[in-house]
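Thread: "does anyone have the structure for this chain?"

Original post by V.I.:
We have the sequence but no experimental structure in hand. Need at least a predicted one for the grant figures.
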Amino acid sequence: MLDLAFILARINIFTVEIYISCFILMQKYHFSFLLVIFLIFIQTVQCQIIEFKNTSAVDRLAEVVTIKRFDSYKDKFPLLKDEKGNLFPFQFDDKDKDGTWDEWAISISIKQKEVKKYKVQWVDSQEINKYKFETKTNLHFGKRQADGSYKNVDFELHPKTHIAQSEPWIYQYEGPGWENDKVAYRSYFDSRNGKDIFGKITSRMVLDSVMLYGNYHEFDARWGMDVLKVGKSLGMGAVAFVESGKIKRLGNADSMVYEKLIEGPLRSVFVIKYYDYSLHGEKRNISDEIEIRAGGYFYKHTLYINKPKNDTLLVGFANLKGVGKGEFVDLGTSKAVFTHGNQSENHDNLGLSVFTDIKTATYGDAPTEPDGDYVVNTSYLSAVAQEVNQFYVMGCWEKSDENFKTKQGFKDFLLLQMKKQAYPIEITIKK
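Reply from O.Q.:
Generated one for you, tokens below.
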């Protein structure tokens, strides 16, 4: 067997020889023509192959995956096409806002146990801007203007003088909203910091218009409705901590800031930062990054906690309609708590769940008797807080999909999502 180092050396010598030959020919023949050939060769030598591997026993259909920037091309963008020459939908994200994209999101389908390889094609910004894809995610934070209209904002510092649920409303549906082609959610941007669900019966984006249509607590055949009663619970995935044996919601910090990070056809991300949040008599800085991707019913929390000190962290959902305590699911690779039953504000079936890959997570149910501002009527997952913590939150209304009419249908869907998160599509860049 030939020595690998020898082979690589010969390849490098061959590449150099080709470069020199091209240069000599350019001196002898028409410069511009051969320059084109030379540049094509350079691109071929530097091409990459991306390998996608689905190790799970589940087909992945139009699943959104992200790839961190892996090249040194300053003003180039990668494209991928399938075997038939069809372009994979994509978006490029500048998450750190330095003017250069740092993450590449694409939508790909791959069967169970399958491996797919595709060659990267590099193009410039002029070429990349030609491609447009159907919008399947959306962020909207409507702030009230002097004329009574609402303007979508990308950044908002919560006013210290604002009192939760006070009129006139300063925010359209009380805070930021995020949605995809399946479901929509919102957050109360005030001391309550609850989360809520807008059940959708359409794949189009609706959050820009919600509240302008009319009362969103009543079913609207054009889009859906607010399907969850929140009360003193955590709503649909809000965050809390245990303090002196009670559940204290994350909110009411000295200052609270909303910022849009990413918005595109395949995924959208924003962050709410809590500065000097009081816990156990100490001040903490906490960032809650929320992401939603096209095609699913869940959103992802990524909680960044400055210097956690064995704090018990909780993420949970409302349990107010007598459907029973939350049921625990332990797959080993991930854990979940869920309920299902007639618990929507439309008096029909709604499945609610939180799941995580935190191996030490446990589950529980909050007290049902009112206790001041502390959290009640909530099923939750809890874990010892780390510097980075991830949870997935999912609300599934029967009018969005008939599979959610039954408890078994919802549970099967939940298990499927847990397995997908436990076995993400593996991505390898090969040169």
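V.I.: this helps a lot. Residues 4-28 form the longest helix (25 residues).
O.Q.: and The first strand starts at residue 49 and ends at 53.
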